[in-house]
Amino acid sequence: MKVVVDMNKCQDHGQCVFAAPDVFSMDDAGHLAYVSAPDESLLDEVEEAADVCPLQAIRIEA
């Protein structure tokens, strides 16, 4: 699985951090950081994070 975040759309709301804290986090400057190739066992969390993103900036690729 590959996680892609459109950083031009992302406004650092952080909803993804709550949905999938093992994949998404906020850096010291308050900007989104994420693991681009997380373990497949985290798929459900990543799907939830993509669903709750207010700007639909998260995409999951095979």
Put the structure in a nutshell:
By secondary structure, the protein is an alpha+beta fold. It is 24% helix and 23% strand.
Describe this structure in words.
The chain is of the alpha+beta class and 62 residues long. It has helices at 15-19, 43-52, and strands at 2-5, 24-26, 32-34, 58-61. It has a two-stranded antiparallel ribbon with strand order 1-4. Strands 2-3 form a two-stranded antiparallel sheet. The mean pLDDT is 98.
Protein topology:
Elements: E1 2-5, H1 15-19, E2 24-26, E3 32-34, H2 43-52, E4 58-61
Antiparallel strand pairs: 1-4, 2-3
SS-based structural class?
alpha+beta
Q: State Rg.
A: 10 Å
The arrangement of helices and strands along the chain is: EHEEHE
Q: What fraction of the residues are assigned to beta strands by DSSP?
A: 15-25%
Biggest sheet overview: 2 strands, antiparallel
Biggest sheet strand order reads 1-4
Shape: globular
Number of helices: 2
**Sequence stretches where pLDDT stays below 50 over 5 or more residues:** none
- The overall average pLDDT, rounded, is 98
How far is it from the N-terminal to the C-terminal residue, by CA?
5 Å
